[in-house]
Every structure is written in C-alpha cells, then in structure tokens.
C-alpha cells in the first residue's frame, strides 16, 4: 500500500520487501500490557443489545447460539433509561423532579415481575449481560417534556439535576443488589453514558454550545452520585472524533474542552469510530471513499486522548468505544444486501486488534450491530442489524427472521481465548495478535491493504511440542458477499497463507502438550512532558520522556503522531538523546488522501543502547505547518532477548570501520566515504541542539560536505536509510 513499516504490538526495523510478509509468533513469551495479559471476551466480543429487549422474543434459538455457542456478550442498552423516564410521574412535593414513590413501586415491578417472572427463561444468560446504559437528548435535556405511551400528559425536565436524580434512582430501584437471586431483578449495569452523541443534535443541529453540554455532564454526574456511587460514568460519547479538523481547533473546542470542564468528574471517556467505504459530499449529492479510521489514524486519536489525560490528571483515564464499525453512505438507507454488511464487517476485526493492543486502557468495545431494530425502520429496515427477514434477500421468501451476514463477525472470533503472547509482523498493514490457551494457540491476522497479501508465519518457542492440527477461519469478500471459509491445513510451524483484500483470518493451532509461556514481556507506555506542538521547520520540537524502567532486555517504540497537509513531509529527522534514529516511511493503514489532511502516527524503533531512564526526543520536519499531536513511547522489558525471522532490525554501522570522514577536525570541508549498505540513503548534519542543518540524498560513493558556513563547534553527521544507520562526530574549528 505504501513504503512504510510498523507492526501492532512491537515495532521492528525495515526488512527488504519480499513476496511474503514474515510474522513471528512467540508462543513461549507472555505479553503483558500494564497488568493485563488475559483475553477478556466480555470487554471486546460484544453485541449492541440487551438481554431483556423484545427483539429476542421468539428467537430463543438464536439467542442461545450467539451467547453460548459463539461466546458473545451483550453490551449496550440505550432505550430503557429514556423509556422509563417517559413513563414516570412528577413529584407533587418537589415539582421538576421524579416522584420517589413511583420509582420505588415501578422499580420493584420491573425487577420482580418484568424480569424476575416474565423473563425467567433468560436468567441463565444474565452473566452475558455486561451492560452499558445510555441517555439520550430526549427526554433528558432540560426543556424536554416526557411522553408517556398512555398518551397522558407528561412533565417538564427543568434541569440537569432533574435528569441525574432520575438516573441515580433508576439504577438503585430498577436493578437488584449484589448477592440477590435472579428473581429479584436484572443485575445492575457497570457503565453509564450521560447522553449519546450530544453535540450533533444540540450544537451542530441546535443552538447550544459545547460548554453547556459539558457542564450538563457535571451536573448529571453529581446528581447520580447522590444516589449511586458505584456505577462508572462517562462521556461525551462523541460521534465524530475528528481531532485534527480545522488545524486541531476541533480538538481544542470539543474533546479538550470536555476534559477541561467535565473530565475530572468522568470515570471514562467514550467515543464512536467508523470507517466509511463511501462518504457523501457536495451536500449529499455525491460519494467518495474510502475514508478510514482504522490504521494510524486510530493510533493518533487514542494517543492524543491518553497523553492529554496524563498531563491533565496525572493518569490515563480509561476509554470506552460504545459504537464502531464500517459504513457506506451510498447504500446505507436502501434495501438490505450482503455487500452492505461487508462494508461494516471489514472494519470490525482490524479495529478490535487495535483496541486489544491497549487492553489496560479500554473498558469495553461494542460494534454497532443491533438485533432487529424495528424501532429504526423507515421506508426500509434499519441498516446495521444482526437479523433480517428472509424475504429481504434475493431468492428467499418468508417473514421469519434469519441472521444477516453480521453473524460472521462473531463466528470468526468464537474460539479465541487465553493468555496473550508476543507476535510481530514485518509489515504495518498486517495487524496481528496471538493467545495461548492450554494446548491451543490462536493467531489473528488482518489485512489493511486493498489487495491480497501472503503471510509467512513462524511459530517459535514450542521446542519439541508437536503441532497436531491447524484450522483457519478466513473472513473475506467473494463476489458481492462476505464468506467465512473454514479449512484444516497441513500442520506446519512455518506455513504461508494468503489473506484476501481487507480480510481477517484466525488460526487455531493444536499441540500435543500444553504450551509453556514461561518467559515474559512487560509493556509499559510513557508519555512526553508536552503535546500538540506546532511544527516549525527552523527549529526542532523537543520532548522529554522520563522515568523509564529498563532491564537487561529492552525494546522500545517511539510513537510520534501528527496532523498536516498532504503536500507536507511525513518524515521528520528524529534524535533520541542526541543520536539520530532511522525513521520508517510506513504507517498503519492508507494514506488518507480523501481527507483534508493526514492525521496519523509514525512508530519508530529505538535501539536499546540509546535508552535512558530520562530521555530527550528532538523532532524536526523540513517544512512548516501542522502539529505534532502526541509523543509517547512503548517500552518492552523481557526476560529473554526476543529474536526471530522478522528481527533484521535497524543495523548500526561501525562508524570507525565503515564510515570514513576526513579531514576531521576541519574548517572548510570534509569528505565522507559512504559504505555500500548506505548508498540508498541520505546525509544529515545536526548541531548540538538537535537542529537539522543539512539533508541531502546520497548520489555517489564519496560525498564532499562544505562546512565553512557553520560556526566552530561539534556537529553530528548521520547517514541512514531504512535498513542501516551510522553517525560520526565532526569537529569544526
């Protein structure tokens, strides 16, 4: 797709591109992020549905299949809070607030009759209901009036405290207490979003300001906590986290403002992420695409949130992705087709892999796959559904409900479990992850490219443990329909497999004995002391990343995110503690050419011998414009040196033996003899402040550098390409 290089999990150096893409899977090395090493299905493998919704009526076989056979969790209820608010009565003793006696009596009825008796058949699945409950503008925004289904007059919501007071009582009265039996009600939800996508309705389409909305979050949260201090509260549930828009003014005026106004009172921050296969433009009269989030744009988005949280609160507050997937405006509100489902499906697995890459910071992720969604039917059924009527497909008839193609997402992921182990890809457009569970291992690979890619998988650290069986599920597009192929492959610890365009495959390896993850790799993320720095070519931007923990075996990845015009350079000069590092020319995902500018991330391997407890990072672009949005570093401390076929690394040339610079010292010029390994690279000159004074491509074996125009002092001459790097000091008299 491009000529850049990164991986998910660990970043490695440049490898000469070949037909096959090498992937290392270290089945003996447990990969811990923060304190998390186990795959948590209820955190990731969720359906945007609840246990008690009427869409499951008459579909008990499908409910059992998805929850038990496919091991899926139910993740979000965005309807019951507002529906019950609409039915509630006003407190005659305290106008503008809900009647507490109504909440007590109605709550008991919902707990013990609606759930305890009427939904008794679903009690067996309640451990699958790890629910996020959400509010909506209607009826909760001040000035709204409740609308009872009976047609009786409603009552007016007078303030944010009105809404928060109802919500707090709702969580207490409509759900059972811990330790009580199922007959006493539904388990209490863990998470609560105050209002879903509020800025679209209230600001973009309304006459309110972001400040009003964010102050509303504070008031609602305070009122909820007068009744319930246990539920985790978050916001602002942004629909479109386009942080770099309008030269990052959108970040300043929305998400940053939310952190500043309401962040201290939030337990988590929630966002929605969507890829667009086709997006409308020209007032909806035309469509173009793709315009994606997956890839480096997600990394830049998350790192900006994380780093500002660290700077603002002294810690990274967790995130919750309550909607994500893929969309296509050109076919969105038309009759159902398998190809429309594919435009959603193809975004889910790669996004999941990026979410799973930060399991210590993600509370929950929920693909926007709803059940039947008859509430959303217009002239056509709602687009993003788990079920459709048979008659909606060509060649089928009948009113009965059947699964859409969306079920294939969950069928693909049905068996993945266990402890995370180290996996590495030499190509950033192949996202990978892997887990060990007893004598089984699971390896996931997702192709971000718009063409098939062949991967060469190397199973490492299995010693004499015999590989008995390999099964693969491959979810890809065939013609105009998603297909989930399941095949048994010849057991081989070094096999190749071709991933289809934008496809995901999951391999299950069965071994003779239980796999031993006796070695370990601990991943820790560190954040620079400043963020969002304007890019000015005349001087480097300097960042400090301090208090690193280093052990005998370390690897590190410097993560530099930025947003700038497509015509500007995406390859800065970077010094780590005064030494230049080789900057890859690849990043995850596509080049975002249909967006107004690029917003993404470079992931730069840092040699172990450059790392210190306290580090100075100097970044200089050759042109003005845009911002460095975040600078972070992932450090991997391992019990053994991690090597494999992908570990060609960025090799450092022996400066004394391989790079000849003479005369040195000098006052006029110096000649540089270029090693063969670096003939495809470039020469740079830095002063002691890290400012890049000179950069030129290498065109011949001997390069004469005129230096008389520079003041006397010490300079660093760096020669690098994407495979090798060498540096030498030059003394100018």
From TrEMBL:
Domain Porphyranase beta-sandwich per the UniProt entry, residue ranges: 429-533
A Pfam family: Por_Secre_tail
Domain of life: Bacteria
Entry's transmembrane regions: none
Sequence ranges assigned to domain Secretion system C-terminal sorting in this UniProt record: 661-729
Domain Beta-porphyranase A C-terminal: from-to ranges: 543-636
Name the UniProt record assigns to this protein: Beta-porphyranase A
Organism: Saccharicrinis fermentans DSM 9555 = JCM 21142
